[in-house]
From TrEMBL, chain A:
Family annotation (Pfam families): Fer2_4, Fer4_7, Molybdop_Fe4S4, Molybdopterin, Molydop_binding, NADH-G_4Fe-4S_3
4Fe-4S ferredoxin-type domain mapped to chain residues: 140-159, 183-212
Keywords, in A-Z order: 2Fe-2S, 4Fe-4S, Iron, Iron-sulfur, Metal-binding, Molybdenum, Oxidoreductase, Repeat
Upper taxonomic lineage: Bacteria, Bacillati, Bacillota, Bacilli, Bacillales
PANTHER family (alphabetical): FORMATE DEHYDROGENASE H, RESPIRATORY NITRATE REDUCTASE
Protein family membership: In the C-terminal section; belongs to the prokaryotic molybdopterin-containing oxidoreductase family.
Residues covered by the 4Fe-4S His(Cys)3-ligated-type domain: 80-120
Protein name (Swiss-Prot/TrEMBL): Oxidoreductase
Organism: Cohnella kolymensis
Keyword Magnesium attributed: no
Organism superkingdom: Bacteria
Keyword Metal-binding: yes
From TrEMBL, chain B:
InterPro entries: DUF1641
Domain of life of the organism encoding this protein: Bacteria
Species of origin: Cohnella kolymensis
Pfam assignment, any one: DUF1641
Protein's UniProt name: DUF1641 domain-containing protein
Length: 993, 169
């Protein structure tokens, strides 16, 4: 893209900047300083604080929102500018008491503090006045102090237009304006989703993490009876702000040695947010996001911002456990490793290398996945290695590999954000990928991006969508193919693109014959008009992204539906350009990386086939062993293998398979049959209960490594704490186990493992820890020079001839049990909890918001069956049963139920109901295809979701902070007018030249 | 067959085991810092003998009440004003040019020396006026007059500002 340059004069110097760039950015790039309190790069100009006033050709303007124009003369230093900035700052300090030394926000990054200091402000012009409101302490995670609030509106902008949860606003109509939640309710009772954006962007201490209060400073823990007189005394004797600032600076400097700041990458979903963790000893003071973070900037969700209490939980495993009779006994590492060596070695001796299965973790690092598959293959001689992507994303990967050649997102979140049309199929990113969802919500709200959502539930994205499709369960392939056919029939296909870059057009078009509008209407329940409407939207948009997740991939026809999505994108030319592409949303933080680094039964790291002799030779040479060419078992086949007696032992880490695999009754029964079972985890999980040896592992905050997010972006995380008790990082444990089997490894740091992987897998050849330092990241494929590939397929698709393939697919009707099971049971995630909940239920604040799971029942069905909020019901499927409490909601319709998967309680777990059926191509379980019958056990009971949950509140949407309303207030006077008036009183006049 | 079990037998340390472990750790740190610790204990002993520790103990134990009383005392005893004057005084000293102060101070000490010498004869009124012709006396008097002039200007500037009622920064 060519950027037009313009030349302007800044303080007498000629400066060239980009056309359309704001003065503030141009000046800042020159290394000059303009104060700016309300401006934040991700939020853009807010125009409430007026501290960035500069003089342009004699007029005062806001630098944050005045674009460069050729030849303009800018002064940032004139007397007029200085007076304007002082006036603006004085107005801010009228709303903010400076007691920095005893303030928990005095950590060197307080914007109000730093700006007052930079302006060399000596005294306050307007007296500080408290506002007539109490401090709001209601929310479990943060507090709002109206008295310290400078009304800059950053929090409101972040809530309304960045997170787009639309809870916060400033009520400018009051005598004393303040930030309000919804229609002015306590924060805890509002629609606030606890994402933390507002707290993060607050430029002072008005919105603060409760975990910081009384903890960050040396003097901030002092009680109010001393603190208040202390502040009064300081104010009374104050020589001027500058001296006070010196004291507070010294105090802030002292805090540096006791508050440790460590960059980490979030582990609660596949979006890959990075941020700093601020700690004091083993205590987490706060999560501090940064605009430098490549994926999220200042964005977080409730889990990433507040969900880390589990690290210090009493329930953490701190010693190895060995099964002895009816109990586990704590042991030493020596004893545990001895036992593994003898038992696992024995199984291998007796039954051969293929009698052991290895299940890796999508929550653990790339390096850990790499050495785990190396352990299985090179040391134990088996390709029986798989990870939990088998439960979610394998069909998406397969669909992509069939059509475009690479098993990952075709672009980054930037492309999703800039796309003209986003189609979400069977995914609920507002809860499962919250920060990614914010980008869609923002574009949809502010830049007119169109949004189509196909989902059984009216989830938040569906509520916001231009079109919400509610197809019959499991029929997505049909309507997607019908849309594609309609587009071709109308002559809207991207002919030039297809001619040059795609194979198999004729054959594919023929395969679409069956997908007429009539057929689609009959199978999907959608109207022809709806299908035509979507086709028209795709046709009219210059760029389309399709996002999908487990609503597509957890069906028997999952790979085919994923393929149908890719076909639609190919037919319309939506690959290889900015703003286009296919985006399977990876669920866990490192689902992508686990697959990338080879914990798959038929692929070596970097998606090279184990069956390829050239590939094997490369690894055999490097590892000095002979590798088995026989593809291994996947997770599903391992469980089957136990049943038919082929598989005798299992080594599993970082995965609660007993709860998350489908048909969990069966899986647990199989675990009981194992001769030997090693489980390695942070907590004593449900799966660990079946183990013979349980090894205590350290979570991400206690080790180093890299994760790869859904965009294929590799990011480093650093060690925050020492491992708790005797727990160890997974890579250390795997190495110790491997060395018991003669591996002779001596990795001393994960960077050495990554260096080895990068030297062997061409996909990652330029990946290195140096290139990933701090906030830096790499999006694979990474060439030897370290350059990544944010957009795939710009020149060629990943096939030998460089062309994509249209891949004909047929619809597989979903599984349906017999008539007595009359209700469809859908399942998925909750915003507040992660996976089975081992981690997030440890947070008291999150439990306060969501104490457990519930069953969503439609209003119609509730009336028919006589159930209401809090009723206890039993759901029975042909495979098992659960007992849950009801929540009646219009998010679900008719005879469709929804049961969130996030519970550690097997009595409530969805997988007690699901079957062992699976996607025909990848063996991913068909979690989303089950019917149940419902028995009412108790009519009355406590509502399973407390009143303080955001789902019960009503949002208060508006665009931004509405600064115009501030300007309309009778007591508002533009800064320029004030200065003029005062100048006249002083008998001075400001020359405007 | 491996049934699911939840029972974990933890090797819990007994109180005395825990104590022995902590003691070991403490002894190690102590022996690593033998000299510093011995000296510190000596100082501690002296503080105890002199009763300083008693006072410190009293203060620490009652810090919350004492703090509150302390601030009350500060208010009653007009200490903020003393502190403020102190700060202004210090700021005043900070603004003086050390060279000039040196010169003035030197002159002052010479003056004191001279003043301390007994008059040889009793000076008449005319005699005193006559002394004004002395160049040294003239220099002294004119410095004093300049000082008064400058101070006067300062005072009237302050008055004008106060009249306007707005302090500009």
């Amino acid at each position: 893209m060519i950027v037009e340059r313009v030349t302007v004069e800044i303080n007498g110097q000629e400066v060239t900047g980009e056309a359309g760039q704001m003065i503030l950015q141009a000046v800042t790039e020159q290394g000059e300083f303009i104060p700016s309190i309300c401006y934040q790069p991700q939020l853009g100009p807010i125009r409430t604080c007026d501290t960035c006033m500069v003089e342009v050709d004699g007029e005062l303007v806001r630098a944050c929102s005045t674009p460069l124009e050729p030849g303009m003369r800018v002064s940032t230093e004139s007397q007029l500018v200085k007076e304007a900035q002082m006036e603006a700052m004085s107005r801010i300090l009228k709303n903010h008491e400076l007691y920095c030394t005893v303030c928990d926000n005095n950590n060197g990054n307080c914007i109000v503090h730093n700006t007052t200091e930079r302006l060399e402000m000596a005294h306050q012009k307007y007296e500080f006045r408290k506002k007539p409101y109490e401090v709001d302490f209601s929310h479990p995670f943060y507090r709002y102090d109206p008295n310290q609030c400078i009304l800059c509106g950053r929090c409101v902008e972040a809530c309304q237009d960045l997170q787009v949860n639309e809870t916060l606003s400033i009520d400018w109509s009051r005598e004393a304006p303040r930030v309000i939640w919804d229609t002015d309710v306590p924060a805890d009772q509002s629609s606030c989703v606890s994402c933390g954006h507002c707290v993060t962007v607050c430029p002072c201490n008005a919105l603060m993490e409760k975990s910081m209060l009384g903890e960050a400073g040396y003097l901030t823990g002092i009680g109010a009876n001393i603190l208040e007189p202390m502040i009064d005394l300081t104010k009374e004797i104050e020589p001027g702000y500058r001296e006070i600032f010196m004291v507070s600076e010294m105090e802030a400097a002292m805090r540096e040695s006791r508050i440790k700041r460590t960059k980490t990458v979030c582990t609660f979903c596949g979006v890959g947010c990075s941020f700093e963790v601020w700690t004091k000893g083993r205590e987490i003071l706060k999560i501090e996001p940064s605009v430098d973070a490549p994926v999220n900037g200042v964005s977080t969700c409730v889990k990433g911002k507040w969900g880390w209490d589990f690290v210090n939980s009493e329930e953490r495993l701190t010693k190895p456990l060995i099964r002895k009779g009816d109990r586990f006994v704590e042991s030493t590492w020596e004893e545990a490793l001895d036992l593994i060596q003898s038992k696992l070695g024995n199984v291998k001796e007796t039954h051969g290398p293929h009698s052991i299965g290895y299940i890796s973790s999508s929550k653990c690092s790339n390096e850990e996945n790499y050495i785990f598959q190396k352990f299985a293959r090179a040391v134990m001689g088996s390709n029986n290695v798989d990870n939990c992507s088998r439960y979610c994303q394998s069909p998406a990967t397969s669909g992509l590999m069939r059509t475009v050649g690479m098993g990952g997102d075709s672009g980054t979140m930037v492309d999703i954000q800039m796309s003209e049309l986003v189609i979400i199929v069977g995914a609920n990113p507002a809860e499962s990928h919250p920060v990614l969802a914010t980008r869609v919500k923002r574009s949809h709200k502010l830049t007119g991006q169109k949004l189509v959502v196909a989902d059984l539930r009216k989830n938040e994205m569906a509520e916001r969508a231009d079109v919400h499709l509610h197809p019959k369960p499991g029929s997505d392939l049909v309507w997607i193919s019908a849309v594609t056919k309609y587009i071709i029939d109308q002559g809207w296909a991207a002919k030039h693109f297809l001619d040059k870059r795609v194979n198999g057009y004729e054959e594919y078009v023929k395969s679409l014959d069956i997908f007429t509008l009539d057929y689609a209407e009959q199978v999907t329940g959608l109207s022809k008009q709806q299908i035509i409407g979507v086709a028209e939207m795709v046709h009219e948009s210059r760029s389309t992204c399709i996002l999908w997740a487990m609503g597509v991939t957890q069906h028997m026809g999952a790979t085919d539906t994923s393929t149908a999505i890719c076909n639609l994108l190919l037919i319309t030319g939506n690959f290889g350009r900015p703003g286009t592409g296919a985006y399977p949303l990876r669920g866990h933080n490192n689902v992508q990386g686990a697959c990338d680094f080879g914990t798959m039964p038929s692929y070596m790291p970097g998606y090279e086939k184990i069956s390829d002799p050239l590939v094997r030779t490369r690894y055999e040479k490097a590892w000095g062993v002979k590798l088995s060419e026989q593809a291994g078992y996947d997770n599903h086949q391992m469980v089957d293998g136990i049943q038919n007696g082929d598989l005798k032992a299992l080594y599993l880490y970082g995965e609660d398979m007993a709860l998350v695999d489908a048909n969990s009754n069966f899986v647990e029964e199989m675990f009981e049959k194992l001769e030997f079972f090693v489980v390695q985890d942070v907590f004593f999980s449900r799966t660990a209960q079946y183990a013979d040896v349980v090894l205590p592992a350290s979570p991400s905050l206690e080790k180093e490594g890299t994760f790869t997010n859904t965009e294929k972006r590799i990011q480093r995380f650093y060690q925050v704490f020492e491992p708790l008790g005797e727990s160890k990082p997974d890579w250390v444990i795997i190495q110790e186990v491997a060395n018991r089997f003669g591996a002779g490894w001596n990795y001393t740091h994960p960077s050495e493992i990554m260096a080895e992987a990068a030297s062997l897998a061409p996909l990652f050849s330029g990946v290195s820890y140096e290139r990933l330092e701090g906030w830096k990241s790499q999006v694979w494929p990474v060439g030897p020079d370290g350059a990544g590939t944010p957009i795939l397929y710009t020149d060629r698709f990943h096939f030998p001839d460089g062309k994509a393939n249209l891949f004909p697919v047929k619809w597989t009707p979903p599984y349906k049990p017999e008539e007595q099971y009359d209700l469809h049971i859908n399942n998925g995630r909750l915003l507040e909890h992660f996976h089975e909940g081992n981690l997030t239920y440890k947070s008291e604040g999150i439990r306060h918001k969501v104490p457990g799971t519930w069953l969503e029942v439609s209003e119609e069905l509730a009336a028919e069956r006589g159930v209401k909020d809090g009723s206890l019901v039993r759901l029975v499927s042909p495979f098992g049963q659960v007992k849950v409490r009801v929540l009646v909601t219009d998010r679900v319709k008719g005879k469709e139920l929804y049961l969130p998967m996030n519970t550690p309680d097997p009595e409530e777990a969805i997988n007690r109901l699901t079957s062992s059926l699976f996607d025909i191509v990848t063996h991913t379980p068909n979690y989303k295809e089950m019917n149940v019958r419902m028995e009412v056990l108790e009519k009355d009971g406590e509502k399973p979701l407390p009143r303080v949950n955001h789902r019960f509140a009503t949002r208060n949407p508006q665009i931004g902070v509405r600064v115009e309303d501030k300007w309309k207030r009778p007591d508002f006077e533009p800064v320029m007018d004030t200065i003029r008036k005062e100048g006249e009183e002083h008998g001075q006049s400001h020359s405007l030249n | 067959m491996a049934r699911a079990i939840r029972l974990i037998e933890k090797k819990t340390q007994t109180k005395s085991e825990k104590q022995t472990e902590s003691m070991g750790e403490i002894l190690k740190v102590m022996s690593d810092n033998r000299e510093a610790i011995t000296q510190f204990l000596d100082i501690l002993g002296e503080l105890h003998k002199s009763g300083v520790l008693d006072i410190a103990q009293g203060v620490m134990k009652n810090r919350a009440q004492l703090g509150a009383v302390g601030f009350e005392f500060i208010k009653v005893a007009n200490i903020p004003i003393i502190l403020k004057n102190l700060i202004i005084g210090v700021q005043f000293l900070g603004r003086l040019d050390p060279k000039k102060t040196q010169m003035l101070m030197d002159s002052l000490s010479k003056g004191i020396e001279q003043a301390g010498q007994p008059d040889k004869e009793h000076k008449s009124m005319f005699g005193l006026l006559g002394m004004l012709r002395d160049p040294d006396v003239k220099a002294s008097v004119s410095t004093a007059l300049h000082f008064l002039q400058g101070m006067g200007a300062g005072l009237s500037e302050h008055d004008t500002d106060a009249d306007k009622g707005a302090v500009r920064h």
